[in-house]
Every structure is written in structure tokens, then in C-alpha cells.
Fold this protein.
Amino acid sequence: MTVQPTRAALTIDGRTLSYLDFGGSGRPLVTLHGHLSEGASFTALAAALGPEWRVISPDQRGHGDSDRAPEYTRAGYVADLRALLEHLRIGRAVFLGHSLGAFNALHLAAERPDAVEALINVDGAVDLPDHGASPLAFVLGFPYTAATREELAAACGPLAAVLEPVLRPLPGGSGWRLPFHPQDTVDSENLVHGDHWKQWLATDCPALLIHGLRSQVLPAEQARAMCSRRPGTVYRPLDTDHFVQQADPEGFATAVRQFLASL
């Protein structure tokens, strides 16, 4: 099934927050990407779920077509999500988040449990120690803009093939930019470190934890504890690294579809 999403936007404090709406008359599922990604990364999932679910995939602040923001705290990300729900006149939705998106989803659920029907946590840890240098610090070597698409892609080294298709033209044909700002990315990633157990345990809505068994982020012992300590949490391991939906798109879609069918 091919899906053609509609791109739309809302304005929050003078900033543009862009999102993809995959349509359908089904119940709303809001999908939240991780760092270095964007809403379009859930296109295959939207196609797999079909019309039973209306998938809405924002480009979170500082990502994709959304404007950069003054800060990248949980409060800022959650405020954007609340504004998006209000803009779409959605009172309640299922929230799926990968990595950065998982942190934002569970913080939203803790703050607004009435707005979250269920949670799908894709390889998001709830206790992420700070080991010093950000694991994403390598992007600080990337230029944010360049005169040509080819020049910018080449400057991204091993990520060139991944980033080249999603580079954005600058206004007026003045060059090209990355779909994220390197310094913003590092700042945002540093702010996810810490203890999020309180938020994870604050709600009792149905939850699914999709765990990459070779994850660089979520240790197996912590994943098991997340499920045992939070009633109503389903555990679904997949033989992938942290980037679950890219490494096993079919297994990922099947896990999500089966969980949603149980609601």
C-alpha cells in the first residue's frame, strides 16, 4: 500500500512546527522520531498500518522542516506536542517514540495522562547515564550549510548516503542545509541523559517496549526492569541495534500492529 501524506504546519511562538499527516479516518497515532531523523521515517509504518490508524508524524523542533528552537528541554518538546494536539483538535492519541521521541512521549504521558491512550517505546532507556562526551558529538564536524547538495553530502562522511536524500534547499536557491543543526543536536542529546523512571512509572496506560537486543542505548537488564516494574507493559525484543525500524522494518511494523490490535 502506498501512502501519500499531507505536509502541514503550525506556528508556535513564531516558530514553524511541520508535520506529516498520513490521513485516514482511523484512531490517531502520533509517531516521534529520534535524533538525526524526521517524521518521514515512519512512512513505511503508516503504510503497514493502513487506514485503521491515522498516523501523524511531526518533525520535532530543530529537525526536518521544523524551525530551530531556543532550547531543547523536555518541557520544550512536550509543549510542542501539546500545541500539535490542540491544533489538530485531537483529545487523545496513541504515542510512539523512538529514542529522543520515546523520552518526549513518556514525559507527555506523565504530564497529560488524559491525552495518551497508550505508549509505544522504541528502544528508549529510562536511565541514561552521562558518560561525558555526547555520542553524537561527531556531527559537530559537519557543516550546517553548503553551496551545493553534493558538497554538503560529501562533508557528512559515512552518513553521506543516508543524509543526501533528506538535505533541504535554502530559501532563494542560496544553497543547501542539513535537516538538523549539529550544535542543536548535541545540545538536545545531552539533555536526554538522566533518570526518567518517575515519568515511566507515572502512568498505567497500555504500553509496548520494543527492544533492540543489540541496542547501544538500552541494556537488556534495564529493559526487563522497565517491563516488570510497570504493569501493563508488553515486551517485544527484536534482533537489531538501536535503530530498530531501519534494521527490521517488517518486524517493527508487526510488533506495532499486534499491540495496536490489542487496545
Remarks:
- The mean pLDDT is 96.
- The radius of gyration is 18 Å.
- The chain is about 30% helix and 25% strand.
- The longest strand covers residues 6-12.
